[in-house]
Specification:
Elements: E1 29-30, E2 39-49, E3 55-65, E4 74-77, E5 84-89, E6 92-93, E7 98-100, E8 103-107, E9 112-121, E10 131-135, E11 138-142, E12 162-171, E13 177-180, E14 183-189, E15 194-205, E16 212-215, E17 218-225, E18 231-238, H1 247-264, E19 272-278, E20 285-286, E21 291-295, H2 308-323, E22 332-333, H3 339-358, H4 360-379, E23 391-392, H5 401-418, H6 420-434, E24 438-439, H7 441-452, H8 461-464, E25 470-478, E26 481-489, E27 504-512, E28 521-526, E29 530-536, E30 542-546, E31 555-558, H9 562-571, H10 575-594, H11 602-615, H12 621-627, H13 633-640, H14 653-670, H15 672-683, H16 692-709, H17 711-724, H18 728-739, H19 744-757, H20 761-772, H21 779-787, H22 797-808, H23 811-814, H24 820-832, H25 837-841, H26 844-848, H27 855-869, H28 876-886
Parallel strand pairs: 2-12, 18-19, 19-21, 22-24, 25-31
Antiparallel strand pairs: 1-23, 2-3, 3-9, 4-8, 5-6, 5-9, 7-8, 10-11, 11-16, 12-15, 13-16, 14-15, 17-18, 20-21, 25-26, 26-29, 27-28, 27-30
The protein binds arginine (ARG) and zinc ion.
Arginine (ARG) binds at residues 144-145, 282-283, 285-287, 320-321, 343, 396, 399, 838.
């Protein structure tokens, strides 16, 4: 149900009261309604006459009847905001076509025809950044999911595969470089200052993988020789001033290419691989065949301007888009409900790659932290959906942490149950069976079943049921064995009141606290609502270590004594389980403290556990740095909501923030000596030392604790670190802490940072972000002032996110008691929606969490959502998110 049928406003909302699909009430698309397209389009020829303000496109489509579809005498070509200048069929101009809303519908009587359509667009006016648009004087495209229809009329759906030939021409001085998918077939000059290029992509592809770039670009080039000995020219295209920051991207690409050959047996299939960096981009990057288009944020990196985390993100996104060449391009999706087929699988592939490059334990912890911060709240809120959704109004809203990250976890579970080798047999079969097809999630699951020899009948529920399962653990000792009872409960989610028990694989071990020994690892696969598993004991005082390595994306509820958690935090042989025990200790204490319950000894136990982590000589600093991070406030909201004796408690952002700051201060002062010693030791490590990254990570953490326990000392330490830094990680880490302090060092260093990096957009984004994220008591006023800064622009998504996404993720600011934070985000949504709906809609979900928040703030959040809902002409994107959030 949506807001029109249940007015949430007591007076009713007259303008939302009618039920017909209007621009206000875009229709719902259902997965069940999938039908094959009646026509095939074996070839597509496109001619572009390029100009920033006017681009003319002549599209020539060979169409023929699809024998596998219900026949039709009409050809429906999708459009979005475009009009046809002319339409010809088999060389004859026709005028019996009609517009049906945005689409062009053309009667076609025969079995095969050639359809030619001319359109004209203004890329400079394209602020949505979907289709063909202008960015920094260049032209580029973004077509996934439904952007191609903003360029020309076409069956813009992923199951229509076509072979493309593209001719581009335009002014040579303005666009010296002309790029498209596939291989360059020919090029030449027109003699009038314009030039042209022809490109041919031999691989049939859906329209969402089309790409074109025209601009003044230079490349960092480096060949890659594939396993079968083919040479591939790889280019990273950027503006001249950015060339020095592209080595890491090129090296990451080469490493990804090698890794996919070795790990999944996948070889690249063209002689050319182009990546172009663009500063105006809605998302991270796009896997267009042979011509990836990237947000500059995931290409440019050097030590002076990018943090260690930025380097990792570049490597991860380069790998992700490269891996799509097989999981996405060679095998694409039948329809957009299958999005997780390519995204979930490709995220898993990029995670496994990064684990191999940088170490499994730390990468796993990072990925789980992201899942818990972004996906768990989604699964517990009004926007919850299965990894394969059943319906949508606007597909852009389903590029979510659920489809991507939970999708990856679901496939990871298959891998855990099959083991690496059998899983590889499954993926080999998938690639072999479906190469060249537009496939479904069901096709993938069947290939893994057949290839890996698994029965995934019940496991398929992971594709259809939303919500994070909760697994309860209890045990009893029986002689020299232990009986572990596991029970599961999958919470109700929108449209899914009743759930069936899922298949939940859990790696576990039973340790002996008395003997300080660790037990052997088992894998328990929970398939029923409740089930008992029996294992031998290895000694007295058993402590269960469960969901080791985070084998299943579930919430484990166990009533472990604090001593047991302390034991696991110090001794578990699984690094993830150690991290988890510490997190659980902190969550238990902080939720109790925020709820006004006594958590006697909780703080002292955490301080001691921290001391042990700081002193543990077996840990490297990269891992120590992870263990030192307390659970995020968003994660704590999730833990607090629904807790308590009656299970009806709401999250109290103010109380959680205060409790967490208190704990940070207690750790900072309780472990002051150890933290100082750690800092001094880490400070001696040089940037390029293999231990350098870990050292920088723990230094940043030490500053965080110092800021909470001794702000004056922290200001001094951070200013010193800032002044001496020879890299962005140290500089940003120091400035982040300074930004939250009321100290003279704050303004001086912020000004210095701005002056130093003025003109470097990605670094100026950091300057906005670290202020918007800061713990400063005046953060709201500061963000309001930053929105007026000359470098702020609402037209650039990176800049918008750098200020407002950061702010929405700053609980102290966003959840300000008087609702000023909510109002600021709602104002932004209303202002941004007409300019860039896709990006505007992303800001709805923080407000949508109102149901889990205490009543005063909840009312303020809901009122802002209602205010947005009442606006005229909301985009499909924002309308859908707001109406679901109010349901
Ligand atoms: N396929 C891209 C990726 O994950 C994301 C493109 C999303 N685009 C969009 N407009 N929603 O690599
Ligand atoms: Zn992707």
């Amino acid at each position: 149900m949506d807001i029109a049928t249940t007015p949430t406003n007591p007076d009713g909302n007259p303008e939302l009261a009618d039920a017909a699909p209007t621009p206000h009430r875009p229709p719902v698309i259902h997965r069940e309604d999938y039908r094959p397209f009646p026509w095939r389009v074996p070839t597509t020829d496109l001619a572009f006459e390029l100009g920033i303000e006017k681009t003319r496109i002549t599209a020539t489509l060979a169409v023929e009847r699809n024998p596998d579809a219900e026949p039709s005498d009409r050809l429906r070509l999708n459009g979005d905001g475009i009009t046809a200048q002319s339409v010809t069929v088999d060389g004859e101009a026709v005028n019996d076509w009609e517009m049906d809303g945005p689409d062009l519908v053309l009667p076609l009587a025969g079995d095969a025809h050639t359809v030619e359509i001319v359109t004209e667009i203004d890329p400079s006016a394209n602020t949505q950044l979907m289709g063909l648009y202008a960015s920094n004087g260049m032209l580029c495209t973004q077509c996934e999911a439904e952007g191609f229809r903003r360029i020309t009329f076409f069956p813009d759906r992923p199951d229509v595969l076509s072979t493309y030939r593209v001719r581009m021409s335009g002014p040579k001085e303005q666009f010296p470089i002309l790029l498209c998918n596939g291989n360059r077939a020919a090029e030449g000059e027109n003699g009038d200052g314009t030039h042209w290029a022809e490109w041919h992509d031999p691989w049939p592809k859906p329209s969402y993988l089309f790409a074109l770039v025209a601009g003044d670009l230079v490349a960092n080039s480096g060949d890659f020789t594939t396993v079968s000995g083919r040479r591939v020219e790889c280019n990273i295209w950027v503006r001249r001033e950015d060339l020095a920051r592209t080595d890491h991207a090129l090296e990451s690409l080469h490493r990804s290419m090698r890794w996919d050959e070795e790990t999944f047996g996948r070889e690249y299939d063209l002689d050319l691989y182009n990546i172009v960096a663009v500063s105006d981009f809605n998302m991270g990057a796009m896997e267009n065949k042979g011509l990836n288009v990237f947000n500059t944020k995931y290409v440019l990196a050097d030590k002076d301007t990018a943090t260690d985390g930025d380097f990792d993100a570049v490597e991860g996104v380069i790998a992700h888009e490269y891996f799509h060449n097989w999981s996405g391009n060679r095998i694409t999706c039948r329809d957009w409900f299958q999005l997780s087929l390519k995204e979930g699988f490709t995220v898993l592939r990029d995670q496994l790659f990064s684990q191999d490059m940088r170490g499994e334990a730390v990468k796993r912890i990072e990925d789980v932290r992201i899942l818990r911060a972004a996906q768990f709240p989604e699964d517990a809120g009004p926007l919850a959906h299965p990894i394969r959704p059943d319906s949508y109004r606007e597909i852009s809203n389903f590029y979510t942490a659920t489809v991507y990250n939970k999708g990856a976890e679901v496939i990871r579970m298959m891998r855990s149950m099959a083991g690496e080798e059998r899983f590889r047999k499954g993926t080999d079969l998938y690639f072999e069976r479906h190469d060249g097809e537009a496939a479904t999630c069901e096709d993938f699951v069947r290939a893994i079943e057949d290839g890996a020899g698994l029965d995934l009948t019940q496991f398929r529920l992971w594709y259809s049921q939303a919500g994070t399962p909760r697994v309860r653990v209890s045990h009893e000792v029986a002689g020299d064995g232990i009986r572990i009872t596991l029970s599961q409960q999958v919470p109700a989610t929108p449209g899914q009141a009743k759930k069936q028990p899922m298949v939940i694989p859990l790696r576990l071990a039973v340790h002996s606290k008395a003997n300080e020994t660790t037990g052997t690892e088992h894998i328990a696969v929970l398939t029923e609502a409740e089930q008992v598993f029996e294992y031998p004991l290895t000694g007295p005082d058993p402590v269960i270590s469960i969901n080791r390595g985070f084998t299943a994306p579930v919430i484990v509820e166990r009533e472990l004594a604090r001593d047991d958690l302390v034991f696991l935090a110090a001794h578990d042989d699984d690094p993830f389980a150690r991290y988890e025990a510490l997190q659980e200790l902190a969550v238990d204490h902080l939720v109790a403290a925020a709820s006004g319950e006594t958590s006697e000894g909780g703080e002292a136990a955490l301080v001691e556990a921290f001391r042990a982590i700081l002193a543990d000589g077996t840990l490297d600093d990269a891992m120590r740095g992870e263990l030192m991070m307390l659970p995020s406030e968003t994660y704590l909201f999730e833990a607090m909501a629904g807790s308590g004796a009656t299970g009806t408690r709401k999250a109290d952002p103010g109380a959680i923030h205060a409790a967490r700051e208190r704990l940070k201060a207690a750790i900072g002062s309780g472990c002051a000596e150890e933290l100082d010693a750690l800092y001094d030791r880490a400070e001696e490590v040089a940037f390029d030392d293999p231990a350098g990254r870990g050292a920088r990570k723990v230094k940043a953490q030490v500053l965080v604790y110092a800021a909470a326990s001794d702000p004056a000392k922290a200001a001094e330490m951070a200013a010193r670190q800032y002044d001496r830094a020879d890299n962005m990680t140290d500089r940003q880490g120091a400035l982040m802490v300074l930004a939250g302090l009321e100290a003279p060092e704050r303004e001086e260093r912020l000004a210095d940072f701005y002056d130093r990096y003025r003109g470097n957009d990605l670094v100026i984004d950091k300057w906005f972000t670290l202020q918007a994220l800061s713990l400063h008591p005046q953060v709201i006023a500061q963000v309001e002032a930053l929105a007026q800064h000359r470098d702020f622009t609402i037209r650039n998504p990176n800049r918008v996110r750098s200020l407002y996404m950061a702010f929405a993720g700053n609980p102290q600011g966003f959840h300000a008691q008087d609702g000023a934070g909510y109002r600021m985000i709602a104002d932004l949504i209303l202002k941004l929606d007409p300019i860039n709906p896709q990006t505007a809609a992303r800001f709805v979900s923080p407000l949508g969490r109102w149901r889990r928040i205490e009543p005063k703030r909840a009312a303020l959040m809901k009122a802002e959502l209602e205010r947005i809902a009442e606006a005229d002409n909301l985009s499909r994107d924002t309308y859908e998110q707001v109406s679901r959030s109010l349901d």
